[in-house]
Specification:
30% of the residues lie in helices and 19% in strands. With 138 residues, it is α/β, with parallel strands linked by helices. The chain has a domain of 78 residues: Nucleotidyltransferase, domain 5 (2-Layer Sandwich), CATH 3.30.420. It has a 5-stranded mixed beta sheet with strand order 3-2-1-4-5, covered by helices on one side. Strand 1 and strand 2 form a beta hairpin.
Length: 138
């Protein structure tokens, strides 16, 4: 009596379980990527067709020669400042206003490097104030 082998080795492979796992991983990564918040500055940028009005603003001016000036909200005083002392001066000027009620407006010459403008935006982020980049109407 000859013993026959009942199980044969099959060369095919079932992809259905693999596709299910890949689909579940795809859903997982899509959901978790929307939860992660990017590390960016929160800015309020004005549109050129509308004028953004802020109740109380501190204006920071950077001219073409990279000279920094700062003014009071009413625009009465303008003082030239050292960029190294900008954060301290802004904190002092904004201390008299209610928190989140003042706005820092950056008026920069178009030829100023973006790193100088983003440095002021970073200062605004550190002292928890809104920052607006002033633009001219086209």
């Amino acid at each position: 009596m000859a013993i026959q082998k009942t199980s044969k080795v099959r060369a095919d492979f079932s992809m259905s379980s693999l596709t299910d796992i890949i689909f579940l991983l795809l859903i997982f990564f899509l959901l978790t990527s929307t939860v992660v918040a990017p590390n960016a500055l929160k800015l309020v940028l004005p549109k050129h067709s509308e004028q953004t009005l802020a109740k109380q603003t501190i204006n920071v001016y950077i001219d073409a020669d990279n000279n920094y000036s700062i003014s009071k909200p009413d625009g009465s005083e303008m003082e030239t400042i050292d960029p190294a002392n900008l954060e301290k001066l802004l904190s002092q000027k904004l201390a008299s206003y209610p928190k989140y009620d003042a706005t820092i407006v950056i008026n920069a010459d178009e030829n100023i490097p973006i790193k100088d403008i983003t440095a002021i935006m970073s200062i605004g982020s550190r002292i928890k104030q809104k920052v607006i980049l002033a633009t001219a109407h086209e």
